[in-house]
Every structure is written in C-alpha cells, then in structure tokens.
Design a protein that fits this description.
Blueprint lengths: L1 H19 L34 E5 L9 H14 L2 E3 L2 E2 L4 H8 L5 H12 L5 E2 L8 H26 L6 H10 L3 E6 L4 H11 L1 H6 L3 E3 L12 H10 L6 E4 L3 H9 L1
Parallel strand pairs: 1-5, 1-7, 5-6
Antiparallel strand pairs: 2-3, 2-4
Helix pairs in contact: 2-5, 5-7
Length: 259
C-alpha cells in the first residue's frame, strides 16, 4: 500500500508548496543556483543558527528518498543468521509481511528488535549455543551487537543497489533552488546507515545544501514520537505549521502530524 501512497504524498507536497510559494514548480529545465545559506556537515550541529525561511520541506529517508525497507529486512535477517539466532530451535527471520507491519509500528532498528522479542515472540533468542540473555544489560548487549552488524551489512547492500525514488531528487532540487524554502532530512535510522544512503543517492554537493539533517542518534525519542520533527522546526526557526513533511509509513506520519 505504501508504494502507492508516496507518489500521492509527493503530488500533495507539490500542491501545498505551490500554494506557499508560486515559484515552487518542478522544472527539469531550471538552472539551480547556490543557496544563500548552506551547511557543510551532516552532523548534529548542521544548523547552529536559526535561519529565516518562509517554509520547510522535510524528507524522511528510508522509503522516501530511496526504497530501502526491503534492504533493511535483508540486512536484519543476514545479521540474525550470522549470529545463529534461534527461538525454540527455529531460526529468527522476519518475513516481508511481518516487516511491513513492524516498520509501520515501531521506529528505529533497536526498538524494532526489542519489540519483536518482547512483544511478538515474548522470548529472547539463543545465539548459537549460548543461553538467551536474561538481564536487561545482557539483552541490550545482544541488540547492540546485532544492530552494529546489521548496519555494516546494510551499507554493503546500499553501495550495490541504492537508487533514488522517481521524482524525489527533482522535487528536492526545486526546493533547494527556492531561497524561501528550507530543505532537510529527518530519519529514525542510525547516522551510519543514513549517511551511507545520502552519500550514494544525494551526493556531496546536494547533501551540503541541506539546511537540517536529524537522525536517530540525535534524538532521545524516535518516531512515532514527534520529537525529531519538532527539533527540526526549532533549529530552522520555522513554525511547525509551515513545514511540509514527505513520509511513507504510519509511524512517520504520526510523528509529522504530532509536531
């Protein structure tokens, strides 16, 4: 369902943006000029002073800039297999159908795994011949190790298969060329994972023109909590009702509307 929702969301964004700023029209013939305010880093301090923009267009990353959800699922399953995770003798594996539900329920990789083991299976797995972790510290150690390996596997998949969603870069470029429009990325994924995606898909020149980029490592609460979008609006110095967000999941939509 979400594959049909995203084009509609982009069309809606274009319509809203035109209402906000008449010059905001996707035009592949247009020559894009350097922005008046640029950032040179993808770090937490990308925007250190509030910028004076009229509006903001903020993109999620996974599923919006690039269709990555299946790559995430494959990387998780590869990490589970490498760690030889089993529950009651059965290997831990996330199906396409289950992951679609999971990524629309929980934001962030570690919270997804905690949710799976605590709410779905109601048991933590064995790793090879090791007994399941019992204490909170042991469980956190397992999740941290799985997430670290999963991220490395995911980065390899991104390098091999990453392609932008049709029309997204054109929309981003048109917004970047408008001096009244701030442009940013807000993703619940880890900095290591998102940085790789942005390196490959956006490229260094386009990345440097983002006015804000907030990632899962940068906030204490992940989507569906609205903190990530509230923080973006605050850093840009723009009222939340002047920010347009492009999302593809229920978790992301709840976060955006909550802001």
């Amino acid at each position: 369902m979400k594959l049909f929702v995203l084009p509609l969301a982009i069309a809606l964004v274009c319509g809203i943006a035109e209402a906000f700023a008449p010059s905001f029209v996707v035009n592949p013939q247009r020559s894009y000029l350097p922005r008046q305010i640029q950032s040179s880093s993808l770090s937490l301090s990308m925007v250190t002073e509030k910028c004076k923009f009229d509006y903001a267009l903020i993109f999620d990353c996974d599923g919006v800039i690039i269709e990555t959800e299946e790559l995430h699922r494959l990387a998780y399953n590869a990490a589970f297999q490498a760690a030889d995770l089993t529950i009651d003798g059965k290997p831990v594996e996330w199906t396409v159908e289950y992951y679609d539900v999971l990524q629309n329920t929980v934001g962030g990789g570690k919270p997804k795994m905690f949710f799976h083991f605590r709410n779905t299976t109601k048991a933590f797995p064995m790793a090879g011949d090791k007994t399941p972790p019992e204490t909170l510290e042991e469980q956190q150690t397992l999740i941290d190790a799985l997430q670290a390996h999963k991220t490395e596997l995911y980065k390899e998949l991104i390098a091999e298969q990453a392609k932008p969603r049709p029309g997204v870069l054109e929309l981003m470029d048109e917004a970047i060329a408008d001096p009244t429009m701030a442009v940013g990325v807000c993703s619940a994924s880890t900095k290591a994972a998102v940085t790789k995606v942005l390196d490959v898909v956006l490229g260094p020149e386009r990345r440097a023109k983002l006015n804000v980029c907030i990632l899962g490592d940068d906030v204490s609460k992940l989507k569906p909590d609205p903190l990530i979008y509230v923080t973006a609006a605050e850093r840009l110095g723009i009222d939340a009702d002047r920010c347009v967000v492009v999302e593809d999941s229920l978790v992301g939509l709840k976060a955006a509307k909550g802001a």
